What does this fold into?
Amino acid sequence: MAVLMRIGLALAGMIFSCVFADRGLQLKSSSGDEVRGCYVYNQTLAVCFNVQKDAIVILKTTGERLVQYYNLGPDMFYYQVMDQSFIARGPSMFFVPDEVSREPESLRAFAKDQYENEETVRHHFQAAVSELHYVPEVRLLELVSAALADNTTRLEILQPFHTLCLNLLQQAEIKIPPELSAEHGMEDDNADTHDREERCSRPQRNRCRGMCGLGCNCWKWICGDCCWHLGCYQHDLCCNYSRFSTYCLFPYSYNLSCSKGFGGYKKCRRMGWR
Ligand SMILES: *[C@@H]1O[C@H](CO)[C@@H](O)[C@H](O)[C@H]1NC(C)=O
Ligand SMILES: *[C@@H]1O[C@H](CO)[C@@H](O)[C@H](O)[C@H]1NC(C)=O
Ligand SMILES: *[C@@H]1O[C@H](CO)[C@@H](O)[C@H](O)[C@H]1NC(C)=O
Ligand SMILES: *[C@@H]1O[C@H](CO)[C@@H](O)[C@H](O)[C@H]1NC(C)=O
It folds into this structure.
């Protein structure tokens, strides 16, 4: 029997609803400006998303937001994970306390006279990802990312979404159970390890950094194959130096190229260990 779900999502004051008769990826909209839909794994497990050029939201089917990210103006982003909100201004992150209204105007005004408090950001970020760790829907993010790459002819606006999913899974230290892993799409590459070693310079060294994926599992839809890529390697190192910096969290703001490298790398390194 078909799974039938009615899902209401609220975004920017607009309510829209999807009715699902199937499992897998359900796209409501897919263009260069917006990719919106849900991924239905089974009757109880599904996750929805809305990706635009300057805004991403990942929701439960109840409409509860897990992650939200949007552009607040020049060099400024709003970033929310579970109930914790942050503003990224330039390379710095600020924690946004509950009493600050979530209106763009108030957020911009709040960010204007903030000084970075690394300890506070770290504390709240850690709290957010620890909570995210136990949210079942998050375990679908690899499948979602893979399905979108398969089904949307590599739309440019999806690149930040893929990295966001990867970062969230990494930071929340989520181990994806085999049935929810997108690995089926990578069997071909993984089976032929000999060929892979011939073609790839060093996929297994350095804890598999540079493989553009979760640990030693690669997301080949990010750079096209399962080899070592300078851009991914530098981004991985950056996240190791300073995982709460905007360089790690929003690498596409700083030019991320698979082959030419990561534009934020030097500045990220200069921030030092955290
Ligand atoms: C849906 O899948 C999850 C993960 O495999 C599982 O825990 C859950 O029991 C499934 N629900 C149903 C209704 O099959
Ligand atoms: C892509 O979409 C097609 C048709 O909707 C579906 O059959 C296929 O499973 C999707 N691919 C993935 C990886 O979900
Ligand atoms: C960074 O790398 C070091 C050395 O490889 C490792 O011990 C540490 O756990 C890493 N830290 C993070 C946040 O990944
Ligand atoms: C990204 O690269 C383009 C062209 O290579 C350059 O014009 C742009 O200034 C770069 N952006 C950043 C933020 O480095």
